[in-house]
C-alpha cells in the first residue's frame, strides 16, 4: 500500500480537531511567553521573583513527575494512544496534573513579568485546558472501561475538586 502524499496527510491532520487543539495549546504557550516580554498597555502589576520561581519550580517538578508517570501514554493529543490508563503518581489524586503543572509554570511567568496581558494569556490557557479536558475525558471513557469510576473519585485539576458527577459517568 502506498503512503498518502505529505500535503494530503497534513491537511487531514489539521482538519482533525484533536490536532487543532494541540496547535491552539502551543499558540497559548507562545502567547504567555510573548506577553511576558512585550510592554503591557496601562503599565504593570507588582512582581515577585520569589513567588515566580517557586511556581515555575513546582510546576516543572509536576511536569517531570507526571511525564514519568505517564511513560508511553504521554501524548499532546486529547485522544489516548492505547498505551493504557495511568492512575499512579499525581494521577492518583488528580485526573489532569500535567495541565495543572503547566498552568503553574505559566502563572509563575506572569507573576515574574507583572504584565496584566500575561495574566490574561494564562487565564486563556486555563480556560483552554478546561475545554480540552472535556473532549479528552470523552475519549478516555470510550477507551478505558474503568475511567468513569476513576473520574468519580478523583479531582480534575486539584485533589478532591471537580470529581465527575453521576450524570457524566453514565455513558
From TrEMBL:
Keywords: Membrane, Transmembrane, Transmembrane helix. It is found in: Endomembrane system. It comes from Demequina litorisediminis. Its main location: membrane. It is a multi-pass membrane protein. It comes from the Bacteria. Signal peptide: none annotated. InterPro entries: Metal_cation-efflux_comp, Phopholipid_MeTrfase. This is Isoprenylcysteine carboxylmethyltransferase family protein. The lineage of its organism: Bacteria, Bacillati, Actinomycetota, Actinomycetes, Micrococcales. The chain crosses the membrane at residues 21-39, 45-65.
Amino acid at each position: 500500500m502506498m503512503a498518502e502524499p505529505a500535503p494530503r496527510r497534513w491537511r487531514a491532520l489539521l482538519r482533525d480537531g484533536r490536532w487543532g487543539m494541540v496547535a491552539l495549546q502551543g499558540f497559548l504557550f507562545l502567547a504567555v511567553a510573548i506577553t511576558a516580554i512585550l510592554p503591557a498597555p496601562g503599565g504593570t502589576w507588582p512582581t515577585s521573583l520569589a513567588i515566580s520561581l517557586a511556581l515555575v519550580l513546582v510546576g516543572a517538578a509536576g511536569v517531570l513527575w507526571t511525564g514519568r508517570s505517564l511513560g508511553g501514554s504521554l501524548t499532546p493529543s486529547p485522544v489516548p494512544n492505547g498505551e493504557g490508563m495511568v492512575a499512579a503518581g499525581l494521577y492518583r489524586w488528580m485526573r489532569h496534573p500535567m495541565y495543572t503543572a503547566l498552568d503553574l509554570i505559566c502563572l509563575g511567568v506572569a507573576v515574574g513579568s507583572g504584565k496584566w496581558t500575561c495574566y490574561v494569556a494564562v487565564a486563556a490557557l486555563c480556560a483552554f485546558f478546561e475545554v480540552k479536558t472535556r473532549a479528552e475525558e470523552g475519549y478516555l471513557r470510550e477507551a478505558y472501561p474503568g475511567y468513569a469510576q476513576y473520574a468519580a473519585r478523583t479531582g480534575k485539576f486539584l485533589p478532591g475538586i471537580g470529581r465527575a458527577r453521576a450524570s457524566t459517568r453514565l455513558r
